[in-house]
Amino acid sequence: MIETVTNTVVATPQGGGFPFGVAVTPDGKDVYATNLYGDSVIDTASNTVVATVPEGNYDMGIAVTPDGKRVYVTNARDGGLHLVSVIDTASKQVVATVAGVGYGPLAIAITPDGNYAYVTNLGSNTISVIATASKKKVATIPDVNSPSGVAVTPDGKHARHGQQYGRGHHPSRERPLCCWHRSAAAGRAIPRFQCRARNQLPPRSKRRCL
Questions:
Q1: CATH code for 2-163?
Q2: Are 72 and 54 in contact (CB under 8 A)?
Q3: DSSP letter at 130?
């Protein structure tokens, strides 16, 4: 946990393995964190894990509904089904699963009115739209190149998404690498961060890939 006044770390609650996404309930009392297998619930008063939700496989994105009653979690590899799990915040248990989203669901965002959830599917280059009332997928937005993060504007009129790979690059084909380019003359890394396709990189001896 970071104190925003001093920008210093003041607590480090120990949850599950490989934490990825984090979401805070509207009342500020609980933090939900996705892990590789299952999710941790952290009490903000004590900064300790008070519950574990054993659900999903490769839990990634997470979002809390505006009323604080439900938490939506993307499961990137749940038995190959690619699901979105719905957690009840009162019981801290999974109460529903939404099937039929695209391959590799990654991030998720919920509209301000709480009626819809937008899910980016990195593997299938689509965005799924889920109706929270029925907990079913109601639409698919096709041909979205490598969608990663997603957020909905405060007025609920637009959803903005990040793009993980450059145009023309597909996750299953050639993917860009992010490298520090090493200066042959100075023998050290140039302080410049660039992402390039594999076939555009300098010789291996002159790069240090992250």
A1: 2.130.10.10
A2: no
A3: E
